[in-house]
Amino acid sequence: MCMTSIVIAGAGYGGVMAGRKFEKAMQPFTLINKHSYHQFITWLHEAAGGRHRIDDYKVELSEVFRQSIVTQIKDEVTFIDRQQRKVIGKKGEYPYDYAMIALGSAPEFFGIKGLAEYSLQLRSIETARQIRTHIEQQFTAYREDQDETHLRIVVGGAGLTGIEFVGELMDWLPDLCDRLGIPNNRFEVQNIEAAPAILPALSENLQTKAKKILEEKGVRIRTNTKITKVEADAVYLESGEVVHAKTIVWTGGVRANPVLKNSGFTCDGRGRAKVNAYLQSIDDERVFVIGDCASFESAGRPLPPTAQLATQMGDVAATNLLALSKGEQMVHFQPKILGTLASLGRDVGVGFIAGMQTSGTPAGIAKELSKVKYLWQLGGLRMVTRNRRSLVREY
Ligand code: NAD
To answer: Which domains does the chain have, with CATH numbers?
Structure first.
């Protein structure tokens, strides 16, 4: 067994996959994470949109890593001190021989005035809970004063996050209205997108299908419409129009965790640390950077920050870190985009798998099956059995 000191910063998709690899190799490591749990971030639209219990969208790290070789520390990383080879947290300092930085991303506000202050963002279990509670409170308040703005929800951005969230809302809000005794033709969901089309990650054909499905469900999709300013209860558009709404959710993009830039890593325009073919920071071979924190060039542009790629990076970076520590040859990271699926509510979706397009119910089923696949990667049959009933639809 190698006694190299390894610190993983962050227990998102990349961090836990790297940890799983070390655990299988019986390599001790320290895992530092802000929370005691791993969150299923890519399914949070379901949590915010009323599908299942919010706490089902997380799993305690002590359930993911059950071996004594894993030291788990609940702390928030604030700095990577490459000179002293220490990961610095709010509560302590953690020396390393090799570090794996997997601290995820933060919302990108593009300097839009009022956006950070007055919008809700879908980025954690707690913000999902906040969004769900906020919507329930607004709908309840409508019963008191009949102010229609309580029932208007504006979602800024029609990337995968925004689209999956509005799809989910359209399945939940009619039930919420029924529960509260509100006529369910009163609420309005506007999805506002600056670009000419929704879902930039998908083909034109799938964009069109997704738009049609969502419009049939009742979403008001507004493309070529840019948000320029936000105030409490008001969204300002480039055209001069002001949309009054008591719920404003921003899903307009992400940038890497600011710790990388603040720690002096060479970063791209979205704050992601540039890495080489082995996923090492170009500034320091002892530091591997993965997931949303890494700027890895493929076909001339950085890879998108997705969970799928983060898990692949975690696996390869852990293999490389072990190889480097033993003086062995590392391998190049070769990203494989196996598919992209967007749910459009509880039953249907759009996307592609292995180059084949899918939409409607088959895409919805494929999306549910992709959850099982991830649970299997995370902890085999034990993790699938633990979570399947609470998170995956029965067919
Ligand atoms: P995104 O960057 O993919 O989409 C944000 C959208 O907001 C863009 O279409 C952009 O044009 C729009 N926008 C930006 N500024 C605006 C403005 N001022 N007014 C109106 N619209 C504006 O962000 P995302 O959806 O949060 O996704 C982030 C990453 O996570 C992406 O790489 C995505 O692929 C990935 N992701 C994947 C899945 C999945 O695989 N199912 C789910 C969620 C996110």
So the answer is: 6-107+254-336 (3.50.50.100), 115-250 (3.50.50.60)
